[in-house]
Amino acid sequence: MTLRNFLLMIAAVGLMACGKKHDEDAKIVEKVPPPSDIRPAVPPPTPMPPLDAASQPVSDLAARPYDADVIAWRGKKAPKRKIKDAAPGASYKLDLYQDAGELTIDRAKVDANRNGKWDDKYTFAGDTITLEHAPADDEHYTEKYHWNGNGWTRAAP
Questions:
Q1: Phi and psi dihedrals of 27, rounded to 5?
Q2: Burial of 19 (0-12, 13-18, 19+ CB in 10 A)
Q3: Higher pLDDT, 86 or 15
Q4: Looking at residues 27-56, what average pLDDT do you find?
Q5: Torsions phi, psi for 61 (to 5 deg)
Q6: Of 153, 131, 154, 128, which Cα lies nearest the Cα of 141?
Q7: Residue 97 and residue 109: Cα distance in Å, rounded?
Q8: Phi-psi map region of 102: left, alpha, beta (phi>0 left; psi -120 to 50 alpha)
Q9: Hey, which of 60, 96, 129, 139 would disulfide with 83, CB 3.0 to 4.6 Å?
Q10: Whole-prediction pTM value?
Q11: Which element (helix H / strand E) includes 29?
């Protein structure tokens, strides 16, 4: 075998090895989901400043575990104006909405037990956070509250 043939054979083997690596890389790239399927991460809850006992407002409805998660989305933008199930894996379902003309998320709905019926509707309007609650878990919102910084105060009828 001549030196020239030997070098050609080594070059051919090297090209074949690079081609196999390229095929493996292409298979890896195919497994990555398209960008439209990527959901934004749930933002961390906004810490609430501690209040001393004398200055704490009276709450008619105590803050529930998911209230902080919902309120943390206030002021954030929703891609495509809606985020379905913004808390995947949580015991509750959270959908977020950014209505036309709004610069940030202005509404949210929570299904506290993932039974397909919304338990709570939140509305963000400036500094006011309004909660409409369906105590019978039937999507009939008969109770209305406003966020007071540490819980919910019943809205005037």
A1: -65, -40
A2: exposed
A3: 86
A4: 54
A5: -135, 120
A6: 131
A7: 9
A8: beta
A9: 96
A10: 0.65
A11: helix 3-30
How many whole angstroms separate alpha carbon 47 and alpha carbon 88?
21
Q: 13-22, 53-62, 102-111, 131-140: lowest mean pLDDT where?
A: 13-22
Query: Is the separation of the CB atoms in 17 and 10 below 8 Å?
Result: no
User: What is the dihedral sign for C-alpha 88, 45, 77, 64?
Assistant: positive
Q: How far is CA 81 from CA 103, 136, 138, in A?
A: 10, 29, 26
Residue with tokens 């003309």, as numbered in its chain: 101
For 92-146, how does the pLDDT look when each residue is reduced to its tens digit (9 = 90+)? 999 999 999 999 999 999 999 999 999 999 999 999 999 999 999 999 999 999 9
Under 8 Å between Cβ of 80 and 63: no
Q: Which two tokens stand for residue 146?
A: 């406003």
Cβ neighbours of residue 36 under 8 Å, at least 6 residues apart?
none
Please state, as a whole number, how many other Cβ atoms lie within 10 Å of the Cβ of residue 83.
Answer: 22
